Every structure is written in structure tokens, then in C-alpha cells.
From TrEMBL:
InterPro entries: Fe-S_cluster_ET. Its cofactor is [3Fe-4S] cluster. One of its GO terms (molecular function) is metal ion binding. Keywords: 3Fe-4S, Electron transport, Iron, Iron-sulfur, Metal-binding, Transport. This is Ferredoxin. It holds the Pfam family Fer4_15. It comes from Blastococcus aurantiacus. The lineage of its organism: Bacteria, Bacillati, Actinomycetota, Actinomycetes, Geodermatophilales.
Length: 74
């Protein structure tokens, strides 16, 4: 599973980093970022539910979840 943040959509509501602060962070202006655990876009094993919850709670749909690895698509 992969995760991305669409910086064009993010409005800095902070729900993602409130729900999973070790997976999502914030920049100096309060916009969502990925942390060291997710910086490469890979979701740590066992944390898929947290990523899905954060995505479901983003009012701007800025947390993008890819159920399969991007390079696994044919």
C-alpha cells in the first residue's frame, strides 16, 4: 500500500496528523506532510487501517491511498 498527500488539495485541517501523528506531520504553515515512517510513500505493515482512517477523515480528500504499489500496476 502507498500513501501520498496532494498538496494542491490540502487545506491544513490536520485531521490526518491528529489521527496518526507518527505517519503524518505538518509543515510550518500547518499543511500535512509525511513523516519518516511514510516519507517514501510506503505504508508500514499493519498500519493500513490508520492510513485509511486518515484518508476517510480528510475533508479535502488530500490523503491519497493506493491499495497496490504504484509500480506493481501493469
Amino acid at each position: 500500500m502507498k500513501v501520498q498527500i496532494d498538496s494542491q488539495l490540502c487545506q491544513g485541517h490536520g485531521r490526518c496528523y491528529d489521527l496518526a501523528p507518527d505517519l503524518f506531520g505538518e509543515d510550518d504553515e500547518g499543511y500535512a506532510t509525511l513523516t519518516a515512517l511514510t516519507a517514501d510513500g510506503n505504508v508500514p505493515e499493519g498500519r493500513e487501517g490508520d492510513i485509511r482512517l486518515a484518508a476517510a477523515n480528510c475533508p479535502e480528500s488530500a490523503v491519497l491511498v493506493h491499495e497496490e504499489a504504484l509500480n506493481d500496476r501493469r
